[in-house]
Amino acid sequence: MEIRIKVPQNVSEELAKLIAETIASRLSELRWVNEVPKSSELTEEDALELGRRTKKGRGEHFERKYISGG
Fold first, then answer.
1. pTM, entire model
2. C or N terminus of the chain, fewer CB within 10 Å?
3. Taking phi first (over 0 means left), then psi (-120 to 50 degrees means alpha), and beta for anything else, what does residue 6 get?
């Protein structure tokens, strides 16, 4: 697969290289994220429940931190 991005001429070669490296790194992370569940023993319902608990916990954390002043 090939991805091409047109970078304006006024953008330095260094910045263009950084953009390309960032995209390649992100694609690598996404491939890894897609591979992890294949070896997981969690059921779909287990994963959904874990997501719900995580979301609730993060919500409570931010509520304490920003709303309750804690």
1. 0.46
2. N
3. beta
